[in-house]
Design brief:
- The structure holds three protein chains of three kinds.
- In chain A, strand 3, helix 6 and strand 4 form a beta-alpha-beta unit.
- Chain A has eleven helices and eight strands.
- By secondary structure, chain A is of the alpha/beta class.
- Chain B has twelve helices and 14 strands.
- The N and C termini of chain B lie far apart (43 Å).
- By secondary structure, chain B is of the alpha/beta class.
- By secondary structure, chain C is an alpha+beta fold.
- Chain C contains eleven helices and 19 strands.
- In chain C, a hairpin with a 2-residue loop joins strand 18 and strand 19.
- About 12% of the residues of chain C have low confidence.
- The chains are: A alpha/beta, B alpha/beta, C alpha+beta.
- Chains A and B meet through helix 5 and helix 6 of A and helix 3, helix 4 and helix 5 of B.
């Protein structure tokens, strides 16, 4: 199996950037923790898939993008939306189903959208959004805008027809698109090894003569660097890349699913938490003197305030008007 | 006014709209080099080049989704399915993505896309290649569904569909491609959602669309000659949004109605139309609304069986006699 | 402890009651004995009393609705008491009915006469005599609409569609015969909704005296002055000659104008009282009996009536009457006097509510001012449909008829 790329040396001149990445990961962690609580209290309904444990993937990858680039994500996309700049208020309010949510309360946890940030959704059919991302890349190429499109999806999606159809066309047509597979090892309760004949997901790209890389999804800088290479390939050569990020989710598949049990052990979970992307990054920054306790405290306090504000905002926001039921079915 | 085929009318619509708007492009299997499996896209590759006339692999789910994604990013794709039978592979893209994107994004992302291709049975193509899917797609809020019967309508409606900001499912009649009709040379469009009275009459309304308009027309001629019954033919043209007003207006005039469609009977288009009639024209009905549909079976290969499975003028005449209490 | 409030049988014959008004509203505190509601029974407006203390928690029957005896109309319970089960029971509607009846308070049951089992209508009963509401008429919506617009009675239209469905062509063909607008009085009438009492009377009488709830009133009339008047008129030697029957028709018409409550049709769910009098006049013909109608009889002079009656009778015997000439009467007379029948009862011709049977005029000794004298006397018997006409109503009408015949000048009074 290919060894994931890691990033070992920190550059003191980029300390602000590192602290920014750390803050974003902490924001996701705290946001998701509070969302989980709100779900348990019945303030959030439906399915709610938390991103805890995988923060480094979205934060590192999106940091490598430009503002005008497009992002497609699956239904475990709260973190991606936040990192992309959708406000915590807008995302939390959407989870609450409020009119002030980033999709007006009509999308919910699985369908977050913020077109102003190039965040083109939350898509809830596994693999269904891969062709869409290729389509957006097709459009940017068609118009010659030099934008890059990135598509996040779980490892379970690689066994879906759309994955193959899309990667084939992306390679065939030389589309500037990055397929970023977040391999958190379980498609709901089925381990990758029990669902795929080939466990090395990056190898799938061979079928389409597409560039591919495997990255440590628990290492935010590795994710950043790997994605940056793929972005350059897309932007300058107009070529697609398949990235496999090896990561791990701490929570159940959704809030309605067990965290561990039949499909994985508590011990495995605890062992994986030792690789925690936030703790390990903090430690490295502190080790290199790029982060002190006071700054960390300030980051934590700042993030908590942002998340608490989003909860208060969501609680106080109105439900959508009943007339909204019939709006936006068709564009006049 | 020139007389051209349904196929060429569609070709003109594609060509004119692609000339008109550089964001419009055509994508599908065999649309370019091969000139179209049914030659609807003949000459377009030469005129617009590979960027705008895109041959795809056989990957309906993939390229339909590429179309939706391109629409999300601001283009106006026309996705050709070689036939609608193959579009079942793409139904996730059409239903889960195209139809719902505007709604679930809270109005942020319109999907101006046309999915088009031939639908319905041709001749002896058997079960997997002979089906009419109007009701499948018309069931879905967010989609518009169009099924023209004549070259004039085909051109005017396709142009409207391409200019529409919503996903449009455009079902062409496979057996209609060679049908001829007058089509003006000047630019025109036909609004989506407007039915058309193809034949005025006073005794019974026959509601049809696409291929069955011709079936209804044959039946109407014989009803006039053999039974002295004057049949009005209402061509729905657009299945969704349905022009209920036009249907009701006709039924209020004739008090009797027969609906003809190629699809299967259960939950078919006619079931919906009959519902609208009983709701809005209940007191105008002198007889229950009857339907003439494709047989409730997978399409058989055998020629005779196939003929029996399709709606026929005889079937329409029988139904009309029933609603007119002539039998 | 919750108390169920049932529609109580507030009269011995009451099967259903109409809630006229609620005296207590949901949420009001009530004590046993408080008046909860006013209920119109078949006899009177009665008070429905609370039979328990508490709060009127739920009312099931809105004002104006009619509820069968024994059905739950409200629940009285403690302010916080759980009444979910009771609500569910009430929600079950008809299913709960039996339970509700069985749970009626003691003593209450005994007071209620067991309602007679609904007697099936005799098989031989003419369709015309069946209650109008019985069964559903199969007609296309269009046929119904046309019928409603043109006032066509669908019960008399024959359907040519599948399973006898009445369709457009049927109502259009039926129009000349069945169109009341041509046949029936148009000058105006008043449809009076049936009161609870009237409904019960109608139902009871049909049940007990089926098929037709007739009753009969007979009176004897001194025709001496009538005979004088007739002789005087005929002495003018002008055609047409006036018959006793003509005079009777004229008088009955005039009397009906004064007694609109006898000039009426039974319409199943309402009664139609006519302002104009169209008098049916039974005429014996070879095949049986037909009743040509003298329209607007009360407006016509004796001479006009005489001429018209003769003409109609002749054409009746020749079987030349048009349908509209023998339908649409608001009341009828049947005269067998010329056949030496002293007295008889005639059968009502529905939907009319009455018919007057005229016997022979005979000379008989009577006591007048203390002396025995011979006078011309005639007995008339009125058949009344009790659903429309009550005894006193019919009697007052007959009194007017008698007074007019005994003093013919009253006709012009």
């Amino acid at each position: 199996m290919a060894q994931p790329a890691t990033y070992s040396e920190l550059d003191a001149e980029r300390a602000d950037f590192y602290r920014h990445l750390l803050r974003q990961m902490v924001l996701i962690r705290r946001f998701e923790e509070r969302a989980g609580e709100a779900y348990a209290q019945g303030r959030i309904g439906g399915f709610c898939h938390l991103y805890i444990g995988q923060e480094a993937v979205a934060v590192g990858a999106i940091a490598a993008l430009e503002d005008e680039d497009y992002i497609f994500a699956s239904y475990r996309e709260h973190g991606h939306a936040l990192v992309r700049g959708a406000s915590a208020r807008g995302v939390m309010a959407e989870l609450f189903g409020k009119a002030t949510g980033c999709a007006g309360g009509k999308g919910g946890s699985m369908h977050l959208f913020d077109v102003s940030k190039g965040f083109l959704g939350g898509h809830a059919i596994v693999g269904g959004h891969l062709p869409l991302a290729a389509g957006a890349a097709f459009a940017t190429k068609y118009r010659g805008t030099n934008q890059v499109t990135i598509c996040f999806f779980g490892e379970a999606a690689v066994n879906i027809g759309a994955f193959h159809e899309t990667l084939n066309m992306a390679a065939l047509w030389k589309l500037p698109v990055i397929f970023l597979c977040e391999n958190n090892r379980y498609g709901m309760g089925t381990a990758l090894e029990r669902a795929a004949a080939v466990w090395d997901i990056a190898h799938r790209a061979c079928s389409y003569d597409m560039a591919s890389e495997t990255a440590d999804g628990m290492d935010v800088l590795a994710m950043y660097e790997t994605t940056a290479r793929a972005v350059a390939r897309a932007r300058h050569e107009g070529l697609p890349t398949l990235i496999e990020a090896r990561t791990y989710r701490y929570m159940g598949h959704s809030m309605a699913d067990p965290i561990h049990g039949h499909y994985r052990t508590k011990e495995e979970l605890e062992e994986q938490k030792e690789r925690d992307p936030i703790e390990s990054f903090k430690a490295r920054l502190m080790e290199d003197g790029l982060l002190d306790g006071e700054t960390l405290g300030r980051i934590e306090a700042d993030v908590i305030q942002e998340v608490e504000d989003s909860l208060k905002f969501s609680d106080e926001s109105p439900d959508p008007d009943l007339e909204e039921l019939y709006s936006d079915v068709y564009r006049d | 006014m020139p007389t051209i085929t349904y196929r060429d009318a569609l070709n003109q619509a594609l060509r004119e709209e692609m000339e008109r708007d550089p964001n419009v492009f055509l994508m599908g299997e065999e649309v370019g080099v091969y000139q179209g499996a049914y030659k609807v896209s003949r000459g377009l590759l030469e005129r617009f080049g590979e960027q705008r006339v895109v041959d795809t692999p056989i990957a309906e789910l993939g390229f339909a989704g590429v179309g939706v994604g391109a629409a999300m990013a601001g283009l106006r794709p026309i996705i050709e399915f070689m036939t609608w039978n193959f579009a079942l592979l793409a139904i996730d893209g059409v239903v889960n993505s195209a139809a719902k994107m505007l709604y679930m994004s809270g109005g942020q992302i319109p999907i101006p896309i046309v999915f088009r291709g031939p639908g319905g049975a041709a001749l002896q193509l058997a079960a997997q290649h002979s089906q009419a899917f109007e009701s499948w797609f018309a069931h879905v809020p967010g989609l518009k569904v169009v099924a023209p019967a004549t070259p004039y309508d085909a051109k005017g409606l396709l142009k409207s569909a391409i200019r529409d900001d919503n996903p449009v499912v455009f079902l062409e009649g496979e057996m209609l491609y060679n049908a001829k009709g007058d089509v003006p040379t000047e630019d025109y469009t036909i609004p989506l959602g407007q039915a058309d009275v193809k034949r005025a009459g006073s005794d019974v309304t026959i509601i049809a669309h696409s291929k069955t308009v011709a079936v209804a027309a044959k039946a109407a001629e014989r009803l006039e000659a053999e039974y002295d019954l004057s049949a009005e033919i209402v061509d729905l043209r657009t299945i969704r949004p349905l022009d209920t007003a036009a249907v009701v207006e006709s039924v209020q005039k004739t008090n009797r109605c027969v609906i003809v469609e190629e699809g299967w009977p259960f939950c078919g288009v006619g079931a919906q139309v009959a519902f609208e009639i009983q709701r809005d024209a209940f007191d105008d009905l002198d007889a229950p609304v009857l339907r003439v549909t494709g047989a409730d079976v997978p399409m058989p290969y055998n020629k005779q069986l196939e003929r029996a499975a399709k709606p026929s003028p005889e079937g329409v005449i029988d139904a009309v006699k029933k609603v007119a209490y002539l039998d | 402890m919750a108390t169920k409030v049932f529609m109580e049988a507030l009269s011995p014959t009451m099967e259903e009651g109409k809630v006229v008004s609620w005296e207590k509203q949901e949420g009001d505190e009530v004590k046993a004995g408080d008046i909860l509601a006013e209920v119109e029974t078949d006899k009177a407006v009665m008070e429905l009393q609370a039979r328990g203390d508490g709060v009127l928690r739920k009312v099931f029957a809105n004002e104006g609705t009619t509820v069968e005896v024994g059905k739950l109309v409200a629940i009285i319970a403690g302010p916080d008491e759980d009444i979910q089960e009771l609500l569910a029971e009430a929600g079950n509607g008809k299913k709960g009915e039996g339970t509700a009846k069985a749970e009626r308070v003691a003593g209450f049951e005994a007071a209620v006469a067991e309602p007679p089992a609904a007697a099936p209508l005799p098989a031989a009963l003419s369709p015309l005599l069946r209650p109008r509401a019985e069964g559903r008429i199969k007609a296309s919506p269009l046929a119904r609409r046309i019928a409603a617009e043109r006032g066509i009675d669908l019960t008399v239209v024959r359907g040519s569609g599948p399973a006898g469905r009445i369709i457009q062509r049927d109502v259009e063909a039926a129009e000349p015969a069945a169109r009341p607008a041509e046949v029936f009085p148009e000058e105006g009438y008043e449809d009076v909704q049936l009161s609870q009492m009237r409904k019960v009377i109608a139902k009871r009488l049909v049940e007990s005296l089926s098929p037709v709830p007739h009753f009969f009133l007979t009176t004897e009339i001194d025709m001496e002055r009538c005979a004088d008047a007739r002789a005087a008129l005929n002495a003018l030697d002008e055609e047409p000659r006036i018959s006793f029957n003509d005079i009777i028709v004229k008088v009955v018409a005039a009397a009906l104008r004064q007694h609109r409550d006898c000039n009426a049709w039974w319409q199943g769910d309402h009664i139609r009282y006519f302002n104009e009098v169209h008098l049916g006049m039974a005429v014996a013909i070879d095949e049986g009996l037909i009743t040509p109608v003298i329209r607007h009889a009360h407006r016509k002079s004796l001479r006009e009536i005489a001429g018209e009656a003769r003409e109609l009778a002749e054409r009746a015997r020749a079987r030349k009457l048009q349908p509209q000439e023998y339908t649409g009467a608001t009341f009828s007379v049947s005269n067998l006097g010329m056949l030496d029948i002293d007295q008889f009862t005639a059968v009502i011709n529905p939907p009319e509510a009455g018919i007057l049977a005229i016997g022979s005029i005979i000379e008989k000794p009577v006591v007048l001012d203390g002396e025995v004298v011979v006078r011309k006397h005639m007995r008339v018997t009125m058949s009344c449909d009790h659903r429309v006409i009550d005894g006193a109503t019919g009697a007052r009408f007959l009194q007017t008829v008698r007074r007019m015949l005994e003093n013919p000048l009253a006709i012009v009074w």
